[in-house]
Design a protein that fits this description.
Elements (H helix, E strand, L loop, with lengths): L2 H8 L9 E5 L5 E3 L4 E2 L5 E2 L3 E3 L2 E4 L1 E4 L6 E10 L5 E10 L4 E5 L4 H8 L25
Antiparallel strand pairs: 1-6, 1-10, 2-5, 3-4, 7-8, 8-9
Amino acid sequence: MDVGLLKKLFGAEQQWYGACTVIIDGEVTVQAVGTDAIGVGGAKFYAPRTISGRIAAEAVCLLKDGSAVVVLQQQRTKSATGEEILKQTLTITAPEHVVAVEFTEAAPVILQGLGVGMPAFKVQSNQSGLLVRPKPGVP
């Protein structure tokens, strides 16, 4: 991804930016954050899985000189004793290896930073669950 575009997204002041998903080009691996367990009645509990090419980041920072993107990821798990364990993963990548960035809640702010306005959506007056199909023409 172009460093200029990353500066529009994350700013050039080297500050941490909020939660987003950073997608990196590279070989993808799946890692278990905790341990899998078998609970009461044979119910299986699987530990959260982390995909290396897709980072659900708590915070992202672009260095001032644009040489690297720093991505902080946190995973919270509970041990068998009920203790909460916080595991942090810090990923430092070159900007050219960032393929995409996904934002879930900050769309208006991001669009404003890119110089694009929010799109206007048409409100449809269909009832919930009702699909109106077009009628075929009668010869």
